[in-house]
Amino acid sequence: MVFAFHPDGSQLIRKLAFLAALLPVIRFFISKAREQLESGHALPDNATLVEIESHAVEIARAAGAILARNFANVASLKVEYKDDKESDPVTNADKEAQDYLKEAIARRFPDHGILGEEDEVDESVAHDFVWVLDPLDGTRNFLSGLPLYACSIGVMYRGVPVAAAVFLPWPKDGGGIVLHARKGGGAFADTEPISVIKATEPKGNRLVTLPGGFGGMFRLGKPMHGKVGEVRMTGSIAYELAMVAKGVTQYTMTTSPFLWDAAGGVLLVLEAGGQVLVGERRKGVFGLTESTRWTPLQSFFPGWRSGRIKMSELRKWRKPLFLGNPDVLSYVTSNLSGRPMLRRKAVRWVRRAVRKKGPRNTDSQTKMEGKNHASQDQD
């Protein structure tokens, strides 16, 4: 049997191959266009946002009063744990504050959705307006009698942060302040305007907040030497974001916050003149390397499709965030790189092995401990 080929068959094949190569590119642009179409709905008018912000401030302050009352009687709190290791406590103060917030929101805005940290998983479809609540961020501090905690309220419209109110215990009449904002309206501490620190680069003598594992995950370039800042850890993500907005700290990074940790503080920083960068982690060949691409956060859920996204999907949101003055963030991120994944895995393996083996109480260690105790007694 003889097959006859058209003289232009090779050209046809090349054209088909070219079109096949273009298909992924075409699909990509169609997908992006669809996302923009779905998320490009106009935001609520200013009058609506003013009403939402005002109510958020009112109930944040009231929830703060509930927390303050319980803080004065910490010893009587009932404590439960969300995990077997007892590392994630929840108290009746958390629950009382959240119950109050949910009831107050539902009464004023019955057609809005509510996502609370202490809620059970909800498979219902999300409303376009969603109030995201962390009734008590910094529970361990709270239980220990340390007044470093926050009650955070963030309001999203189709994934975009549009209003926020965060109560902080503060040495002021009433025992606290409420930092608040609405999209396009600026940020305030009660009635005083607030702003992120004005600077073109980080300073070594100014405060920053970074996670405990920062040094193991990232490597800083030489231009950052001596400019990282005085590092603090407060035990409350919402509190740390608020400190950036208030101009107390230069910048902050949080590696895996939940939505309720960040929904309020993100808008505070943006409206205080700051920038919020969201990180997308990318693994290299065989997972031996990892890099993070930082881009400005416009929405927690780009491409929000009304009537399609579920509340359970909102609960799963966790992404790295970098917040601060835009120039400072640009300086830091341009001198920041991830550490090799293989090295990090090796370090974790060694630490686990040491923990399993347990401490070795040698004679030399015993003698050294004795000397240390003696010197302390002399002091």
Account of the 3D structure:
By secondary structure, this protein is an alpha+beta fold. It has one domain (46-338): Fructose-1,6-Bisphosphatase, subunit A, domain 1 (Fructose-1,6-Bisphosphatase, Chain A, domain 1, 2-Layer Sandwich). Helices cover 40% and strands 22% of the residues. It is built from 11 helices and 17 strands. Helix 6 (237-245) runs parallel beside helix 7. The N and C termini lie far apart (103 Å).
How are the SSEs ordered, and which strands pair?
Layout: H1 9-39, H2 46-71, E1 79-81, E2 89-91, H3 92-108, E3 113-116, E4 129-137, H4 139-143, E5 150-157, E6 160-169, E7 176-182, E8 187-189, E9 192-193, E10 207-209, H5 214-217, E11 218-220, E12 230-232, H6 237-245, E13 251-254, H7 259-271, E14 275-283, E15 290-296, H8 311-315, E16 321-324, H9 326-333, E17 336-338, H10 341-357, H11 363-378
Helix pairs in contact: 2-3, 6-7
